[in-house]
Design goal:
The chain has 14 helices and 21 strands. The protein is of the alpha/beta class. The strands form 6 sheets. The chain has a 5-stranded parallel beta sheet. The radius of gyration is 22 Å and the shape is globular.
């Protein structure tokens, strides 16, 4: 087989290069040839921006029981208990594996330094200063680059999944960003590890790549989607006109950070006895309520009770970034606002990362495993990526898991009569409108009327986007616009279905959780791909 064929016809196609995608590529390479497709450079991912850490029971006073309990409590009754138990139990082994792969976690006096974050009752957060994700990416990218069985295809954007006549996934159409050329990549198994979709919202902690590509492709392929209404808004994103998407880590509040109003008063005592260490949904709603009540533009995160020496040692990246905007967090509180951060829902999977579409798998934030329920516990996300990448590899290593598929030749990409667009303003206009609509109508606090308005408007936008997509030759911008429109549609449809407030889904028309309630919100595209 030629190098080109090997690249386009691997045994395993992995889309996405965060912690879950990199670990999948590393593990699957022991079983065959892997092509790892990533839409920018391989290290550009949500993982790379993760500041906090990865949760694992390692402390003497901690236990699996405590970690399970904390996760279930944060998940507001929707966590899959089996998934929580197996994930928590697997955490120490997965952390050791990361260390063996070269990840260097912070230590204090030659012992792993365990941090505390909101919702956790014990110190169990392994971190690398405040750039944990960057350190994990560094080690895993180096490992994958060394592996001769892995072909990295950077600056390439997956457009759509390829299905055969039996409805099995046989790979994906992939665009080279530089040339615009779209080629079919076929495989025995396709893994979606494209991360989240924070760019669906006007304000987000996510990087620009987070446009929900894997979720949208799975949706268009007919995969079952779960709990898309549960979007976690991080309570504290840096509020500054020149700052973009900069997260103020949960670990700041774990180290005693206090939330203040403009007049210097604390306010979390009115919302939860755990104060600033309440779960993220509670803190984000509290901030949102205070901003609406006072009319202020932001609240303030105060770390001035710590010395500069402590802050620069524990939070070197955050300290330097905030200082670059003229704020010395040792002397002054940091302006902060909530921002879209993490999707607890996603492509519905089982405990082996299988989706409802044969030969299609999903891991990381793209997937809904049942671990997070209605609200993710801090630092469980990197852990989830590790655990389910491992479980996927274990599953695919069994002799009967992935029998060779029938012979299949994909159709070449057919642009039809599409021409080059001279109306790029349509993309930017619809992009901005969707993100603002989602922020205003489908944000931290929702109502039935806002959701109905959002769905009505999005139906019109979807029609415009579909016409543009088929009339003009695809570009990365229109592909991402199409994806955020699909993800926005899924969030709205799921939110309309849940007639209660639970976890991250809070609606003024149904302010209490139901005693008898819908467990998971499951949706599937029934009209066929657009």
């Amino acid at each position: 087989m030629t190098a080109q064929n090997s690249r386009h016809r691997p045994d395993f196609l992995v889309v996405g290069s965060g912690i879950a995608g990199l670990l999948c590529a590393h593990k699957l390479a022991a079983m065959g040839r892997v092509t790892l497709v990533t839409k920018k450079e391989v290290a550009e991912s949500n993982t790379n921006y993760a500041q906090g850490g990865i949760a694992a029971v390692l402390g003497e006073l901690d236990s699996f029981q405590f970690h399970v309990r904390d996760t279930l409590l944060a998940g507001a009754g929707l966590c899959a208990r089996e998934v929580v138990r197996l994930t928590v139990a697997a955490a120490p082994a997965r952390v050791r594996e990361l260390q063996e792969l070269g990840v260097r976690f912070s230590e204090r006096e030659s012992v792993i330094d365990l941090g505390l974050e909101a919702g956790h009752t014990h110190r169990r957060i392994l971190h690398a200063g405040d750039i944990t994700g960057r350190e994990i990416e560094r080690a895993l990218v180096a490992e994958v680059r060394r592996n001769k069985n892995v072909v990295l295809v950077e600056n390439a954007l997956a457009v759509d999944l390829i299905l055969d006549g039996q409805g099995e996934c046989r790979g994906a159409y992939v665009m080279d960003r530089a040339s615009g050329r779209i080629d079919p990549f076929t495989s025995r198994a396709t893994v979606l590890a494209t991360g989240g979709a924070g760019k669906v919202y006007l304000y987000t902690t996510n990087p620009d790549i987070a446009t929900g590509d894997g979720m949208a492709m799975a949706w268009r392929a007919g995969a079952k989607m779960a709990n898309m209404e549960f979007v976690q808004f991080h309570p504290t994103c840096l509020y500054h006109p020149l700052a973009k998407n900069f997260l103020l880590s949960e670990a700041l509040r774990g180290e005693g950070g206090r939330l203040l109003l403009k007049d210097g008063r604390r306010f979390m005592g009115r919302y939860d006895r755990r104060l600033e260490l309440a779960p993220r949904d509670i803190v984000a709603r509290a901030i949102d309520a205070e901003l609406k009540r006072t009319g202020d533009e932001c609240v303030y995160l105060d770390m001035t009770h710590h010395s500069r020496a402590f802050l620069t040692a524990r939070f070197p990246n955050i300290y330097a970034k905030v200082l670059s905007f003229g704020i010395d967090m040792a002397n002054a509180p940091i302006p902060a606002v909530p921002a879209a951060h993490f999707f607890c829902g996603g492509v519905h999977t089982d405990t082996q990362a299988r989706t409802s579409v044969p030969r299609l798998y999903a891991v990381g934030e793209t997937a809904h495993t049942g671990l997070h329920g209605a609200n993710r516990l801090a630092s469980n996300s990197l852990l989830e990526g590790c655990v389910f990448a491992h479980r996927l590899a274990q599953h695919l290593s069994s002799p009967d898991a992935l029998k060779p598929p029938p012979a299949f030749t994909p159709r070449p990409w057919n642009p039809g009569r599409a021409v080059t667009s001279d109306e790029a303003v349509v993309i930017s206009q619809n992009w901005d409108e969707i993100r603002r609509l989602m922020w205003n109508y489908v944000g931290i606090v929702r109502t039935d009327k806002r959701l109905d308005r959002a769905l009505a408007r999005l139906k019109l936008l979807n029609r415009e986007i579909a016409e543009y997509y088929w009339d003009f030759l695809p570009t990365p911008d229109i592909i991402e616009l199409r994806n955020i429109a699909d993800v926005a549609t899924m969030v709205i449809l799921s939110a309309i279905k849940r007639k209660e407030s639970r976890g991250l889904h809070y609606t003024l028309d149904h302010t209490k959780p139901r005693r008898v309630y819908r467990r998971d919100t499951l949706i599937r595209m029934t009209a066929g791909p657009r």
